[in-house]
Amino acid sequence: MSTPESPVTPADADDAIVPDTKDWTWVLERPCPDCGLDTPKVAVTDVAGLVRANARSWQAVLAGDGEGLRRRPRPEVWSDLEYACHVRDVFRLFLVRLGLMLDQDGVLFPNWDQDETAVAGRYREQRPEAVAGELAAAAEALAAAFDAVSGEQWQRTGVRSDGARFTVGSFARYLVHDPVHHLFDVTGARA
Questions:
Q1: pTM of the entire structure?
Q2: Are 155 and 29 in contact (CB under 8 A)?
Q3: Which end of the chain is more exposed for a tag (fewer CB within 10 A), N or C?
Q4: DSSP collapsed to 3 states, the chain
Q5: Beta strands 157-159 and 107-108, pairing class
Q6: Which helix (H) or strand (E) holds 166?
Q7: Contact 126, 85 (CB under 8 A)
Q8: CA distance 1 to 115
């Protein structure tokens, strides 16, 4: 995610990915003042439905003008298409991480650099209609996986490469803030 306070690193500012160095785990403790999601109050059993609803909203965004979707509001802020690609990849990543948490005790997640992924994936060059389908499929796979979690599985644990510890429950809440916040970034609609 891009933040205006971060320095632009690549030479071509129009295609620059501005690193987000914030530790967003604070959303597990209090509501987000920007997007309005009160993550601590989200019931873990509601996460699957929230993921599906969010994916439907992204379909509407991605139905817009292709060139407009690629246009950044400011050079250091992602375009709508870049945000959608990121959300798609977050859904994919969290599906893998959820599987690891359910299959292994205290798993350590491999590092994921979202900015490197955006550059390597050439987010701004992707076709919006393809991203829409991929995002919908990734959201449904993740939602179905969360639907299948029950009982003590919500307490299974995983650790991010920076040391942040999650249960499946806190992981679910942490996840849902990301696509909701990015939809706010694009549409201005608060949760």
A1: 0.89
A2: no
A3: C
A4: CCCCCCCCCCCCHHHCCCCCCCCHHHHHCCCCCCCCCCHHHCCHHHHHHHHHHHHHHHHHHHCCCHHHHHCCCCCCCCCHHHHHHHHHHHHHHHHHHHHHHHHCCCEECCCCCHHHHHHHCCHHHCCHHHHHHHHHHHHHHHHHHHHCCCHHHHHCEEECCCCCEEEHHHHHHHHHHHHHHHHHHHHCCCC
A5: parallel
A6: strand 165-167
A7: yes
A8: 8
**Length of the chain, in residues:** 191
Q: Output the tens digit of pLDDT for each of the chain's 191 residues.
A: 433 333 333 334 456 667 666 788 999 999 999 999 999 999 999 999 999 999 999 999 999 998 999 999 998 899 999 999 999 999 999 999 999 999 999 999 988 998 899 999 999 999 999 999 999 999 999 999 999 999 999 999 999 999 999 999 999 999 999 999 999 999 999 99
Q: Comparing C-alpha atoms, which of 99, 166, 107 is closest to residue 177?
A: 166
For residue 95, give the amino acid letter: L
Amino acid present at 37:
L
